[in-house]
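Protein modeling request. Please complete all fields; requests missing the sequence field cannot be processed.
Requester role: graduate student
Desired output: 3D structure, token encoding
Chains: 1
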Amino acid sequence: MRPRVRARQLKLLKEAARVLRSGKLDAAAAIIGAAAAAAPRASYEAATCHGYLALIEALRGQLSRAADLAAAEIFPHGDNLAGQFSPAAAVALAYVHLERNERRPGNRDGEPASFAAQVIPAG
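Delivered output (123 residues):
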């Protein structure tokens, strides 16, 4: 990614974080959308933006949309993102499971398994 584009994207994400902390979900989503548009397709930067958009959807109560966005960034298709994921998408998906009172796969006996350990690649 060109340094100028990356600097613009980082500036947008920093602004979006400030706006998100103030509770303005729509404004934060618009800013993150602009950052996503500036990111190359199938890049870690794009995955990060989409992960934050998934988190915003979860906070809005749009759980199905949040789960779809998050799953696409946690379990990316294609070789160029192998082993990479968006931490924000992992948080969004965990939030969806919590709100739906769903058990995670592999958590049969009710043990307090860490969702992050299931979605974050080791290493």
